């Protein structure tokens, strides 16, 4: 993956919404950037600052967001299938109706995040901080919550079949 600069990212986002595969945006400050509706497959956003960034309805499968700061980010209705969000800060993020099938959110901070009606089948939420997160109507079939802090999280009407490690 070839690394790019913030200026290059701005240039890429001008005009039409490009489809990008395999680009390296690691370590950049992309706070508030709008990636809505874009295809960003197998991208690298590791250690990137994405505070209040917009990814709604974006295709982000197999993308790496490890250790990124995504506080307040909008990922609603996005496809994050098999994405890596380990140790990512997703406080107050909107992940409602997102597809997180097979995603890894190990040790992620999801305090006050909205995951309403999200698909988290087979997702790894081990050691995640889930205080005050909402999983209303979410499909958590086969998800792993081993060592996660779920105190204050809401699981109303969520599907909890074959969930691991969730203290009820």
From TrEMBL:
Segments passing through the bilayer: none
Entries under Pfam families matching the protein: Pentapeptide
Keyword annotations of the record: Repeat
Source species: Candidatus Nitrohelix vancouverensis
Gene3D superfamilies assigned to the protein according to its UniProt record, in alphabetical order: E3 ubiquitin-protein ligase SopA
Recorded superkingdom: Bacteria
Entry protein name: Pentapeptide repeat-containing protein
């Amino acid at each position: 993956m070839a690394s790019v600069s913030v200026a290059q990212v701005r240039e890429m986002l001008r005009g039409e919404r490009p489809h990008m595969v395999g680009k390296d945006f690691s370590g950049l400050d992309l706070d508030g950037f709008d990636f809505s509706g874009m295809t960003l497959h197998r991208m690298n956003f590791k250690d990137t600052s994405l505070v209040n960034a917009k990814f709604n309805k974006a295709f982000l499968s197999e993308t790496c967001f490890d250790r990124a700061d995504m506080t307040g980010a909008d990922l609603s209705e996005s496809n994050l299938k098999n994405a890596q969000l380990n140790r990512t800060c997703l406080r107050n993020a909107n992940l409602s109706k997102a597809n997180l099938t097979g995603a890894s959110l190990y040790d992620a901070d999801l305090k006050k995040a909205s995951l309403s009606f999200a698909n988290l089948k087979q997702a790894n939420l081990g050691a995640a901080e889930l205080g005050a997160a909402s999983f209303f109507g979410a499909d958590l079939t086969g998800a792993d919550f081993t060592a996660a802090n779920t105190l204050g999280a809401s699981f109303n009407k969520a599907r909890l079949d074959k969930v691991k490690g969730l203290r009820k």
